[in-house]
Amino acid sequence: MKAHSYTEFPPMETTLRLAAVKLFDSPQAELVHLTLRSGECIPAHYAAVDTIFYVLEGHPVLESQGECQILDPDQTIASPANTPHAIRNEGDKSARLLVIKAPRAQSPVVFVNPIAVNSI
Predict the structure, then answer these.
(1) What is the dihedral sign for C-alpha 107, 112, 118, 120?
(2) How many domains does the chain have?
(3) N or C: which end of the chain has fewer CB within 10 A?
(4) pLDDT the model gives residue 117
(5) How far is the C-alpha of 84 from the C-alpha of 91, rounded, in Å?
């Protein structure tokens, strides 16, 4: 076994040009370190698998099923498969999260409003 820092991994190419690093990838699960800078967001989308968010720092806002929840460091929240959700950082500082998808998605996320994504 060997421990690694997220800074040792190459950045992911993301549609929204966010700071993301894939830390683990197997058929059973995927683990991504995500940084949302102040004002950044991931618009409403859904994945075909369960998505779990664990907040490392900052206070991101998760919106799902008509509800918004401000998250604190060391909190976790899950979005069941095929449930639209959005996450944004309204704070002055960056928010860092771990995003776990289980099992690993076989297809990309689907944005609820793809036209809005293209305008970001």
Answers:
(1) negative
(2) 1
(3) N
(4) 62
(5) 23
